[in-house]
Amino acid sequence: MKGPNCANCGAPRPAAFCAECGQNDDDYRRSLTGLIRSFLSETFDLDGRLTRTIRHLFTQPGFLSSEFSHNRRASYVSPFRLYLFASLIFFFCLSVSTDRDDVRIAEDRIVTGEDVVQSGATAEDGQAAPKKLADPMLLAEMLEPADAELAKQILLQPDLPVKRDVLNNYALLIEQNFNPEERSVHSWWLKPVSSRVVEATSQPERLVDEFSESIPLAMFILLPAYALFLKILFYQRQHTIFYSEHMVFAIHLHVLAFLIFTVNLLLPDAFLLGEVVFVGLFLYLGVYTYRAMRNYYGRQRFATLWRFGLLGVLYSSLFLPALGLVMVYAFIAL
Fold this sequence. Notes:
The longest helix is centred in the C-terminal third of the chain and has 32 residues, at 301-332. It contains 15 helices and no strands. The protein is an all-alpha fold and 334 residues long. The two termini are 52 Å apart. The chain has two domains: 60-100 and 206-332, no CATH class; 110-187, no CATH class. Mean pLDDT is 77; it is low at 100-130. Helix 4 packs parallel to helix 13 and helix 9 (161-177) packs antiparallel against helix 11. The radius of gyration is 28 Å and the shape is extended.
């Protein structure tokens, strides 16, 4: 029960917050539903500020960043909380919308060599065998017994042509580029790589899961680089814009991107609707970014336009390699 004094330090508390220690007057001795509601409210400021922030974010490009620079922050959700909120929603929807059946090349049904012979699978049956078969002992010598057996089973499966061809082509690549002596010398890295190739070929959905889980970290790491590009491109002598302000502007743009592509994920993909909506949202994001730059930095049209284009090139030069590094990390983490 709330009283006139602070429960934490005992000082008089005439308002919602104690002037001495800063503790609020909330009483957490309540039902689980109340605790969850309070947690969500404190985490995402679900008291009208979130709605107000989202409305301004979508309808007034650059407005929220300008408000932050003018030290008017209390009426809006803080940039970092907003980023947390939007990224959680986007990556949750991304993980839910990813159809594992699209990733899974075929059913994980293991057959033996006798099954292959009995099935009579030939090129006429629509299951064309690889043009050239690698030496089955080549993979065996570079793998642990369990992985070697798994690789053998994949290579013997007529109903998994894609998996079989991927593994066979990898073995041919090793066979053509490394002689037995070189394979022995480079076994310290060939063996773990070969093991990961077998695992990724056997269960490609695991690779996709690892990749999806690593993307949020990569996006967060790219934020400072994006803000640095903004600081360089929009450098002003007369009116200094601090790096933290460029960071806030970058956060607001990324939040908008997360939210609009979340909308795209939630729409049904029928009759090319998903592709049309994706293109429309992508164009909207480009126009929005340009307008936000004009409104926030106050440059002329052409001065903003060439900076906008150069920023896109610079960011892409980091974004695509970052995705490649995430894929490598996901491959290693299997």
